[in-house]
Automatic annotation (TrEMBL):
<dbReference type="InterPro" id="IPR036412">
    <property type="entry name" value="HAD-like_sf"/>
</dbReference>
<dbReference type="Pfam" id="PF13344">
    <property type="entry name" value="Hydrolase_6"/>
</dbReference>
<dbReference type="GO" id="GO:0016791">
    <property type="term" value="F:phosphatase activity"/>
</dbReference>
<dbReference type="InterPro" id="IPR023214">
    <property type="entry name" value="HAD_sf"/>
</dbReference>
<dbReference type="GO" id="GO:0005737">
    <property type="term" value="C:cytoplasm"/>
</dbReference>
<dbReference type="InterPro" id="IPR006357">
    <property type="entry name" value="HAD-SF_hydro_IIA"/>
</dbReference>
<dbReference type="Pfam" id="PF13242">
    <property type="entry name" value="Hydrolase_like"/>
</dbReference>
<protein>
    <recommendedName>
        <fullName>4-nitrophenyl phosphatase</fullName>
    </recommendedName>
</protein>
């Protein structure tokens, strides 16, 4: 399918300014919005500074379960963007909180990165290895070091009755030179082979957005979600009652979009102008 481009002409500039006039807080996706790999996306540093100068609180919601909030905060700082640690929220920490809330003290088999293991070890559950006879929950995050042996053990536990909790439904992640599989692709394998339906905790799950709102002390009706994935960032924002901005600096839109954000913008320079106009108008 041909990629479609969108600009504020899809909604008049005046309408876009009015739609964003009530924004008092901002939630960000990271990859494709503020940075791409180790490079800040043009306009990102200026946008974050604009929010800080205007006294608008902001936080990051990342579906990345392969690294922790400290590493993401430090990457942002290296690129010139300051985020308090408590306002960098990952799907791994969300998954750990979710499992501990629903199944406190349960036996949890973690399939994922070292950080995913660490996040689960920090909550009220009992982590069990792949040699365990059974588990109550299989907690899945993404790791490029996963093996078929590890996945086979997870399938065995699922077949024996374990619940499947996964960090995020993204099927792929853009990387230099192409793409790599993400958690959603691995979850599909475990769902089919293990006979269980995954419970995804990261975006677009509204509970994940609730954590972001709590971090910035804002309600959904006064908060803007900025993302580059319609099916994850924008869908989750819509279902959670936030307004949303799709930026065309990350994942492309193919075909006619089935999900409409509040505004489409080319980049954060354009979005900053719209927000500034709403504050001064």
């Amino acid at each position: 399918m041909n990629e479609m481009s969108h600009d504020p002409g899809d909604r008049s500039r005046a309408d876009a300014i009015q739609a964003l006039a009530g924004v008092r807080g901002v939630l960000f996706d990271l990859d494709g919005v503020l940075y791409r790999w180790e490079q800040a996306i043009p306009g990102a540093c200026e946008f974050v500074k604009f929010l800080a100068d205007a006294g608008i609180p902001y936080a990051a919601l990342s579906n990345n379960s392969q690294t922790g909030p400290e590493n993401l905060r430090d990457r942002l700082a290296r690129l010139g963007m300051h985020f308090p640690l408590e306002r960098v929220i990952t799907s791994a920490t969300a998954a750990a909180s979710y499992v501990a809330k629903l199944w406190p003290g349960s036996r949890v088999h973690v399939v994922g990165s070292s950080y995913m293991h660490q996040a689960m070890a920090n909550v009220n559950v009992q982590c069990v290895g792949q040699d365990a006879e059974e588990a109550d929950v299989v907690a899945l995050g993404m790791s490029m070091d996963l093996t078929m042996v590890q996945l086979a053990e997870a399938v065995r536990m699922l077949r024996d009755g374990a619940e499947l909790v996964a960090t995020n439904p993204d099927a792929m992640l853009p990387v230099p030179g192409g793409f790599q599989p993400e958690c959603g692709a691995v979850a599909a394998l475990l769902e089919m082979a293990g006979g269980r339906t995954a419970r995804f905790v990261g975006k677009p799950n509204p509970e994940f957005f609730t954590q972001g709102l709590a971090a910035i002390g804002r309600s959904a009706g006064e908060t803007l979600m900025i993302g580059d994935t319609l099916e994850v960032d924008i869908l989750g924002a819509t279902q959670s009652g936030l307004c949303s901005a799709f930026v065309a600096t990350g994942n492309p839109i193919e075909g006619e979009p089935a999900i409409e954000p509040t505004v489409f913008v080319d980049d954060l320079f354009e979005l900053r102008r719209l927000l500034q106009a709403g504050r001064t108008g």
